[in-house]
Amino acid sequence: MSAIPLDQASRLRAMMDAPTARTVTVPRRRARVLAIASGKGGVGKTNIAVNLSLALARRGRRVVLVDADIGTANVDVLFNVQSRFDLSHVVQRKKRLDEITVKIDPGLRFVPGASGLADVTDLAPQDRIVLLDEMSRLETQCDLLLLDCGAGISQNVLAFAGAADEILVVTTPEPTALTDAYALIKVLHRAACPALYSLVVNQAESQREAHAVYERLAATAERFLGLRISAAGQVLRDPCVPLAVRQRAPFFRQYPRCPASTCVAALAERVDRRDPDASDPRGFFDRLLTFFN
User: 65, 75, 212, 237: most buried by Cβ count inside 10 Å?
Assistant: First the structure.
């Protein structure tokens, strides 16, 4: 069992303490970071994250999916993998991040979250430093870094989503889900989150219904927040989705020709062709450090 060197935590602590040393120079092109979030649970956020990551990897991208839902991690259930180690072992300095990462498909790796782990903001400073430093290594190891954030509005969501390049907000046509999705967007916007905002309408009965849901939320956000939200796409209601969940398998892999898989393939294409925003030269890790400072 390899422990994380003590000088690593010392180095990161010095970075946080020194006002002139809080920007990390990344020697190679960094990954685009996509945070997947939702205003409430039960809208299929994790299912979207899992299947989208698979679809992006099938397009030839190097993808890492991080279960950033600290405390109630469950991405491993949908992948049907049982990892002996997770992020809690990284926090405890018992494992490095590379050692807990699970290879799912060619081009796709998965970082297991930690059920029962305290909120990142509640961690001791040295533990949080170790966790964030390990995560920062992912930026140069992939093309796309996907974060499956927790549902709702928490400090974890604000931290991870606020540091991402783009936030993919998942909702359903249900009025409560739509209301909570807008509440999440409002809180992130008021926290001066600079990311791009996109909306995915899950469990839509038709493309027309999904478009109507998007138009409603986008108009509200532009009117009251002065914020533009793009339409990422929709995932149609499909009996293959709950069937795949019961089989503990991603529907994109289990039923590649079902309507939901077709929708996810289209979503992956739109995500893949979007140009990264080069206006902020800082990496994901730098922005996380700013949040915690």
Answer: 65
Both tokens assigned to 289: 């450090």
Give pLDDT < 50 ranges for the chain: 1-2, 4, 6-9, 12-13, 15-16, 18-27
Pairing of strands 102-105, 108-111: antiparallel
Q: In this structure, what token pair is assigned to residue 179? A: 């209301």
Which residues on neighbouring strands pair with residue 151, listed in sequence order?
38
Q: What is the 3-state secondary structure (H, E, C) of 20-42?
A: CCCCCCCCCCCCEEEEEEECCCC
Q: Would you list the DSSP string of 126-173?
A: HHHHHHHHHHHGGGGT-SEEEEEEEESS-HHHHHHHHHSSEEEEEE-S
In this structure, what token pair is assigned to residue 24? 């990390």
Type of residue numbered 48: I
Strand ranges of the sheet holding 63-68, from the earlier edge strand across to the other edge: 102-105, 108-111, 63-68, 144-151, 32-38, 166-171, 196-204, 230-236
Give the closest residue to 234 by CA, choosing from 62, 75, 43: 43
Cα 108 to Cα 90: distance, rounded to the nearest angstrom: 20
Identify the three-state secondary structure at position 258. coil
In DSSP terms, 115 is beta-bridged to: 71
Structure tokens at 50: 């899992």
Q: What is the DSSP letter of 15?
A: H
Model pTM greater than 0.70?
Answer: yes
